[in-house]
Design brief:
By secondary structure, the protein is of the alpha+beta class. The protein is built from two helices and twelve strands; from the N terminus they run ααββββββββββββ. The radius of gyration is 27 Å and the shape is elongated.
């Protein structure tokens, strides 16, 4: 009888808790998973930074377009990318009184570069009919005008609609002209006559709508 009761007590003890060995194994698994998560998180966040920066710029472009349409007053978008020494800004300016309506800082240079990658040479463009010329920067700044009729024009030629593509990507460590991965390349296209805007991501060697 005592043997049967002893076995029953051992069975109840086993059912009511875990052995030290089981707890040690679980703790080891949790530690390994935590270590992997700690090292993976910065990479995952960096992979998202080009998307985040692209959506910030996209939001400003749409806001400038809507403000111009609602007020019939020309609004200018000024984009000054970050450099290795300065943090960039993006701003909407009402041209009738040169008032800054909205302004924000941009991602730092080591997180996002706003330019077409040049190392290695990157010649891809969004698919036709959105394969416009690259956005032109003057003295490190990209400026365009949003008009009351919905069109987007150049600051230097206010009457001529301008269609262009703005590129951005996560740079490789120590090489700002090279993307960390081609899959981090993003593009924003603007069709000048109507102000139509598209956001693109580069996957499998081609741009696709985001």
């Amino acid at each position: 009888m005592s043997g049967r009761y002893g076995r029953a007590r051992r069975m109840r003890a086993r059912q009511s808790g875990y052995s030290i060995l089981e707890l040690v194994v679980v703790a080891a698994i949790v530690a390994i998973m935590s270590t992997v998560a700690v090292f993976s998180l910065p990479r995952a966040l960096k992979a998202e930074s080009a998307d985040t920066a692209g959506k910030q710029i996209l939001d400003f472009i749409r806001d400038a377009s809507e403000l111009a349409l609602m007020s019939t007053v020309v609004h200018r978008l000024d984009l000054t990318p970050s450099t290795s020494t300065t943090v960039g800004t993006i701003a909407i300016v009402r041209t009738s009184d040169n008032k800054i309506i909205r302004q924000e800082t941009l991602s730092v240079y080591t997180d996002v570069v706003i330019a077409r990658p040049t190392t290695p040479s990157f010649t891809a463009t969004p698919p036709s009919p959105f394969d416009f010329s690259d956005a032109a920067f003057t003295s490190g700044k990209w400026s365009v005008l949003f008009n009351g009729n919905g069109s987007v024009t150049s600051v230097t030629t206010p009457t001529a609609p301008i269609s262009c593509v703005l590129y951005l990507y996560n740079p490789a460590a120590g090489s700002p002209t090279q993307p960390e991965s081609s899959n981090t390349i993003r593009a924003i296209s603007i069709f000048g006559p109507t102000g139509a805007i598209r956001f693109w991501g580069y996957f499998n060697n081609a741009f696709a709508r985001r």
